[in-house]
Specification:
The chain is of the alpha/beta class and about 375 residues long. The protein has twelve helices and 14 strands. The chain has a nine-stranded mixed beta sheet, with helices on both faces. Helix 5 packs across helix 10.
Length: about 375
Amino acid sequence: MKPFIEIFFIFVFPMAKPHKNIVFYLLSLLYTGVTQLRNLLFDKKILRSVKFSLSVIGVGNLAVGGTGKTPHTEFLLRILKDYRTAVLSRGYKRNTRGFVLAGEKSDAGHIGDEPFQIFSKFPKTVVAVDEKRVHGVEELMKRFPETEIIILDDAFQHRHIQAGLNILLTDYKLLFTNDNMLPYGTLRELPKNSERADVVVITKCPAGADLDESRYRRQLNLLSHQELYFSAFEYGSICPVFPDNPVSVRLNSEVTVLLVTGIENPEPMSQYLKQTVGSFVELTFPDHHNFSKRDLGEIEKKFYEITGEKFILTTEKDAARLKSNRFVSEAIKNNIFALPLEVKILNDKHEKFIHKIYDYVRKNSTDS
C-alpha cells in the first residue's frame, strides 16, 4: 500500500497547479480511494501507529506545499527555546537516503533545503531527516536521550507516528474545503480528514481581512475541540546570502529589485515589494527548484539589464539551495540577499497559541 502511494506521489507531486479536466478528475477519484483505504487501515489499527513517550508536535497540511510549514516550524522553535527540541523532516529532494543528522558540513543537497534553512537559523537545534519517521524518532531518542520535544515537519500524512499535538495549516486563499484531490486539485487527503488535527491555522492572511472565527469554523467544518488560529507573515531586514558579500543595501523607493523565487507561492513576497521598492523584476521557478548553470546565467543577465541602484532578492529557502550551488558567480554572490519572514498570530490570540503549545508539553511531561 505505502509503496504504491509513494509512486503515485512521484507522479503527481510536480503538478503543483491543479489540472481541471476529466482525465485528472478520474485520477483524483482513484487517488482518493487509495488514500482513504490507507487511512481506514490506520483507523482500524491494521496499520500500526507508534506513540512515543516524549512530546511530539506534528506540523503539516492537506495540500501539496505552499502553506508555510517551515516558517511555522521556526515559530515553534522560538516558542520552545527553553526546551531541548529537535526537528525531524523527510528532507524532500535531498541526494541522500536514510537517517541523516545536520552538521557543519551539511547543505541543501545533503539534508534538503527546508531542513538546511532551519539548521542555518537555529544551529543549536538538533535537525535530522529520515524518510521513515518512526526510525528517525528512534534514532534521535537514542543519540540525544535528553531531547524533550520533537517537531515533525510536514507529517500530517505520516500516520505511522501518533503525534501528541497535530497542527494543520491551510492557506487563506485556498482553504482545504475549497480544494480538490490531486491531481485535479492540490489535496493529498480529503477535507474531512482534518478531524485528526488538534489545531488548525489559516495562514498568509492579508492585512485588513475579515477574520471572523465563527464563520471560518463553519466553513472548515471544525469539531468543537479543535482550536482555530489565523496567522500572517512579517518580513524582517534583508540579509546577504553569502557572508562575504561586501554590499550593503536596503529596501526603499529608489531601488529596483530582481526577485528570484523557487517556491510554491511567491505572490505574498511580490505584494510586499510593491509597497516597499520603486520597482522590481520577477524571475520565478518551480518549488524546490535546483538552479542550473543556465538558470544562474539568466539571473545574472537580467540583473545587468537593470539600471540604477539594484540588487537581487530571494527567499530563505532559495538561499539555502544557492549557498552550495557551484555555478553561482561572484557577481551574483556580491548582490544577492534573502528576505527573512516570521509568523505572527492574529486576532489577539498570540499568547493563547503559545499557552496551547506550553500546556501540551507540560501535560505530556507530567503524564510521562
